[in-house]
Design brief:
KDZ, CxC2 domain-containing protein
Amino acid sequence: MVRLSLALAMVRFAIPKMHIKGHLVLCQIFFSLLLILGSGMTDGEGIERPWSMIGGLAASTRVCGPGARWDQLDDHWSFWNWMKTLGLVLLLRRRMDRAAEECAKQEQDFETLTLGHADRVLVWKQQVEEFEADNSMPNPYEAKSEGLSENAVRKMFEEEEAELEKAGAVPIHDVSPTEFIAALLDAEADQRRIRGLVDLKKTRGTSGGVSLRRQRRKLNRAIKRLRTLQLTYTPAALRALDALKLSQETLAERVPLFLPSAIPRLDRGHGGCREGLVEIERALRDAQCRSALTSLQLQLHVKSRLLTYKRQHSRAQAMNTRSRTLVDQNERKILLHSEKYQNAWRALVAIEGGEDKVSWRKLEKGDIRCMEDSQEVQRDVQRREKADRAQKARDAELQQAGLAKLPTSTSAMDDEEMEDNEDEHEVESFSIDRSNRLDIAREANAVFKHGESRRQVSWIWSNVSNTSEAVEEALRIEWAKSYARLRRWKEEVRILGVEASRIPLSFAAEERVWLKRAFDVDVSGLGAEHAEGAIAYAAKHADMYRNLARRAESTLTSPKLTRGQKGERDVFQVYAVAGDEDLADGLVDSDDEDEHGNASDDEEEEE
């Protein structure tokens, strides 16, 4: 227990950035590297890279013996480690330049956000500092629940009904009003699910092994029981149903259920709708909006990971088919959750008597997107505007030359745009239906290009309503995350600076190790020939690490090159050690690559 307590006190647990999007939103708040002090821009995925590279070797080594397989894997890992050692300087230099630029951008954005809410910033900053000092304090990055869940609402009304019965109230039916409204909402959910299966069957030619006929029979029986209950609780619903004169061939998923919100206000009076039913539906619909948004966020997270996996790893027909099936299933879930929210929102509008009286916002097609989609749309608009300008310039040149305009195709796209929009067209190929219902789901078609540090979000990710308290909470969360992003980028700049400064020192230490080995060669014990070879081998490695240290210092301190510029070519001195401090004459140009991979070509400088 003592060891565990020490570990918990000294270690902060986190989820790697590539994997965290597949977790719940609560996990993303408590275990995000972006919110952990001192993490900088660490992604936590370092171990995944050699695993992905070694995958190609697995098939060829599985038939080897244990010793041969071990040696072969060890050789490959050692080679990758050496290549990483050689490329670490350039990698850190690129990261340093990028971190400095991004830190400046985040600082400017943070200052703008802070100036706009200067009266609240001190309180928000204190909340962040208190939480970082003690994680048991309220989390400033977490959106507090503004209401009860669906199950909690049902339980609350059921307890109230039980109290009324204890007080002597006589129920009008064995099924309580709460159970009646809940049964109607369950039937509505079944209708959404069956419509999704029907649309999927139309497109894919299969219903995924589910019998639609059996599902419809089950739903018809449930609706028949509900009609009996409506005779007791909402007679106006049955009158409205008779006025529709529905055909006998109407499918179960298309039959109107007529919840209290669907009954006109005038018809609810005079016994058309029992008192209290509208209030029960209002509370349950409010909980539905909340749960639907949470589920929609989760499915959009899952979708982004599915599309990323499909684009990067799916090859050949079999793998693409499996990946496409997973994306289709996820697309259907997004459609169901978006419909659930829209149905609940429309019911609240009908109950309250107007959109302005409902705290929840209307869910538009463009709102159903991942966190980075707004930037993707902006990039698409910029590319199309650039293409339009180029087309107009070509048309003007042709007109000036007296030539006719070239025919153009609105569907034609350049190679870059095709590559950037590959996943978008891939998602759009999943056409369940031509109605607006599928158009809503199709808008959720983008993949994460960046993480939390560079995102722009749709309102659905704030998971708040339009009340003043909710807006205040959303502002606090956005400011706290902006504050965290700025500090992580500043930490990244400092961390990279320290790491970069230690690279030449590490190479210099390796040089001293090999020099010591050269001086420690026992000439008398090994003999002149063997001693000379050992000294030459040690001197060669010492020279290699000396050159690496010099190149590291030059790369890290040289000014940043713009596109088209070339850096100065470094010239390093080669020396040998022969027991004494005899130095070899001559210089070697670093442009030559030796057998150790010690190269310093212009291409690396330009990177």
